[in-house]
Amino acid sequence: MAASLTLHEYDVLVPAPLLGPAPSNVRVVSPELYAWLEAQSIALVDGKQMPWVRRSRRGVQVTSYVGVVAAPGGTLIEILPKVGRARAASTGEARALLLKMLRCQPHISRLRFSSAQLAADRMPMLEVFIGEFLRAVVAVTRGGLRSTYQPREDDLPTLRGKLLVAQQLRRNLTRADRFHTAHDEFSADRPENRLIHAALRKVLGVSRDADHQRLARELAFAFTDVPVSQDPAKDFQRVHLDRNMRSYRDALDWAGMVLRDFTPTSAIGDQQAPSLLFPMEKLFEAYVAHHLQKQLPRPFRLHAQAKRHHLVRHEGARWFQLRPDLVVSRQGTDVLVMDTKWKLLDSTQEGGPRRYDLSQGDFYQLHAYGRSYLAGQGAVVLIYPRTDQFDQPLPVFDFPSSEGLQLWVLPFCLERSELVLPDRWVWPGGSGTWDDCQL
User: Fold this and answer.
1) Cα distance between residue 328 and residue 310, in whole Å
2) Which pLDDT score, from 0 to 100, does residue 169 have?
3) Do residues 369 and 362 touch, judged by C-beta distance below 8 A?
4) pLDDT tens, 50-61?
5) Residue 120, SS3?
6) What is the DSSP letter of 227?
7) Domain map of the chain by residue range?
8) Is residue 93 a contact partner of residue 84, using CB atoms and an 8 Å limit?
9) Closest-CA residue to 175 (of 205, 155, 203)
């Protein structure tokens, strides 16, 4: 069975042998795997691709991309959110948390996870996704592959459809036993089936689970008469799902993920790394936006990635667009600006140079947002994941140069999917409190 390696964000990998015990965030790998990871870190920077691994002082370090990468030789590298390690959670809990956050992604939210929550306790993320895709294809095959009439041109021994006279004279002038015709053929060779077949073939080359391999081969046999899609992008544009094709919807959503995301992060010689990686900053932002949107009462509205203001004007042109992650408005007026930060704070580190591990640059950014979106009056918020070291809001920060503008640093509880709020904080732009808004 292929080897697997489970990491958390920002873990460091070093080659064997290692003298002495390794710290909790350091993993020892084989010299061959380490050499490949080191080559990846260089190639990703040079190729300007997603930098999921980078060189560090001590070795190579994974970054804030989570998911799975299949390394040459069959080793499956799984990278989980760092909050799992911070809370001393089990690997299964960290995977389950990642699945919860993935469901809030715009291009994943339609996907159904029938048994993924249970599977997360016993198999890597890649196999969880593959299992969900295969279950969706099983639902398609149970109802039978859908066929449709396809236009065909071919030399046939009998006249069928319309005889193409010009082509007949050019191709079959000396062959009285052949007719070049244009006709319709009832066939399963349609874009939906081609895409699913292509995804099945790709899964066969990626999955390391024996049950998934067996099921994928059985399902691929049902698509024997269907060619593999040679241009998935064009075939996805041709997909047409009517009411007789409802069983295809989930399978095609999963096939889209397989064909678009199980792609090499880089290629070094003949060694490619199929991967399914997601930036944690974007996952956290989408997760917070999804749940805050559901919790906000009327008349408040949440706007993600607002871009209504710029930092400066220059000769009639606007420069440097200001795009906060979240803006709350009330009856068309912006009343609150929020920015999500995927970083672990420590509320015990108030004094000294650490200052809760907050970034000065983030404060500058929120100050600019508050001046532009709120006219320097009201509240701006930095949202960080809740951990044991940061489980309550920090005391409020005041901007001396902008009287009336305050900054709050609030934790977001990933397990309960809710923002941890200050006691009786008056809602900006209204007379009620956070409690009155039922947040």
Assistant:
1) 18
2) 72
3) no
4) 788 898 888 899
5) coil
6) P
7) 4-143+192-279, 148-187, 296-419
8) yes
9) 155
